[in-house]
Amino acid sequence: MALDDAGLDLLFRKARTPVAWNDRPVGADTLRQLYELVSLGPTSGNCCPGRFVFITTESCRERLRPALSAGNVQRVMTAPVTVIVAHDPLFFDHMETLSPIPDIRQWFAADVGLAEETAFRNGTLEGGYLIMAARALGLSALPLSGFDAAMVEDAFLAQQGWQANFLVSLGYTDGPPPTPRASRPAFDDACVVI
């Protein structure tokens, strides 16, 4: 079974990165539903290293402000929610309940490089799922990399020991941006079939 054109439009063809938000709030139930969808996406060995901090209050947005690059301040500060997409470098401590593979925890506990690579790669993958799940729920998503990760980690993640990857602002919009979609590489420029 495949998505119909309406589903493909919602997730890809007509989905756009927002430039402004309307006043409609994003409720806690929506955030829970969002995470439930994200958690179903595949990760290698079901390692699930992605961690998400949902910034929803004015005081927390103000704590985030100094870490933002100048070009991102307006859109982040006016977004109903901004998500810190992070990963847990010690994700393998949960592997015994997440994966049926015997001794899988030890694979990562014994190899710091493998653990770091796996956490970053799969946490990024889960961040991509977050964007698509948000679109599926009718939200607009603005992924951002213009921020100081060390400042974000100090302000929001130090207690958990998580590491920041990127930000995603979420909310509702009143339609697509007024400018046309930017071009994308053509199949022959970006793909090789062998």
Automatic annotation (TrEMBL):
Its EC number is 1.1.1.298. One of its GO terms (molecular function) is 3-hydroxypropionate dehydrogenase (NADP+) activity. It holds the Pfam family Nitroreductase. Keywords: Oxidoreductase. It comes from the Bacteria. The keyword Repressor does not apply. This is Putative malonic semialdehyde reductase RutE. It comes from Komagataeibacter saccharivorans.
